[in-house]
Amino acid sequence: MVELRHRGTPTPSLTAFITTHPNLTVADFDSQDFHSVKVAVKADLNQDQQGLCVYCEKTQTPAEGQVEHIRPKAKHGDLCFTYTNFAHSCINPKTCGQSKGDGVLPIEPGPGCNAHWALSTDGTIEPIPGLTHKQQHLVRQTRDMLGLNRDSNLVDERKRALKNLVEILELAPNDAEQFLQDAPYRHILATAL
Prior knowledge:
Helix content: 25-40%
Order of helices and strands: HHEEHEEHHHH
Low-confidence stretches: none
Structural class: mainly alpha
Strand content: 5-15%
Number of domains: 2
């Protein structure tokens, strides 16, 4: 999961839209009036997330994916237009925001969100050893809500990325940090170091 750090100043067109529409409702998020703002927000989020889906870490362009509400707008309507509640997520019916739906994640994307899970050699995401039963449950619940082990293609891609990282560590260990700066799955791969 991307250790998301939102920019300090939200997308200017978002701020302007909120100012000129003081009585916004959740329905306004999908309105035609908000569409161009949503496109700009998605581009900023893509930049904040270094071109990765916030949940699965697959590479995506600013034009791909969707603006995801970390805390679902259906349950947290007051956060519907709050930039720090937005993330850029891929659109895959098996994973990520589509899988999460209106669920509330036990572990949200942000600093330290990967502290309790790791990438296994088979490409799956698992709780790290030594966690309490409760911590393991939160890791599994988050992982399963997002379907992070459900899509076999995603699991295989992470397995290949881990294999590449291991090869770099064996052949040119000093290049590992550079590899991680540009690689998809870089946040989950970093748990293997």
